[in-house]
Write a structure and sequence with these properties.
By secondary structure, this protein is an all-alpha fold. 47% of the residues lie in helices and 2% in strands. It has two domains: 17-76, 434 Repressor (Amino-terminal Domain), CATH 1.10.260.40; 89-155, no CATH class. Strands 1-2 form a two-stranded antiparallel sheet. This is Helix-turn-helix domain-containing protein.
Length: 163
């Protein structure tokens, strides 16, 4: 006869701080959202198809809770989650206004835009394209390189590097 073993999930121990910190932050945000919207834990747990205990463990950011339970809690709160890539910043949002002071090479190219501390993304891209030959590529900061890649992906989506 088959004998059921302990039905409690195994304790899961994350070995790195970053994923653990992310789960803690997610749990905390879910709890804050639930409370800010005056939703009881019982109501959210029921809507998510979870036990109240599991919701509590999610709000504590426990790594042993199944990922599906986390997403069920997110959905029950009417929220959406997505994956943010840290390896391809070309898809990160471009600011509506680009502060010249944050991008040294762009600032040096935009000498003709006197009195302006910021410009639009289209203006920035046009300045880069028109004046690229004047850029000292060894002095491009990582932030500026990411901005250039995002601008290229937006304004030249079919290009070799912007695809």
């Amino acid at each position: 006869m088959y004998r059921m073993r302990n039905t409690m999930p195994a304790k899961f121990n994350l070995q790195t701080a970053t994923p653990r910190d992310q789960l803690l932050a997610l749990g905390k945000q879910l709890k804050q959202y639930r409370k800010a919207n005056k939703l009881s834990a019982e109501a959210v747990a029921t809507a998510a198809g979870l036990s109240r205990t599991t919701l509590h463990r999610i709000e504590l950011g426990e790594p042993s809770v199944a990922a599906g339970a986390y997403w069920a809690a997110v959905a029950a709160l009417g929220l959406r989650c997505g994956i943010v890539s840290t390896c391809d910043d070309r898809t990160a949002p471009i600011p509506e206004v680009i502060a010249l002071g944050n991008y040294p090479q762009l600032k040096s190219l935009a000498w003709h835009v006197q009195g302006a501390e910021s410009i639009t993304p289209r203006q920035a891209w046009d300045i880069y394209v028109r004046n690229w030959r004047h850029i000292d590529e060894t002095k491009i900061t990582e932030d500026e390189q990411q901005l250039i890649e995002r601008l290229q992906a937006k304004f030249e989506p079919g290009s070799k590097d912007g695809a």
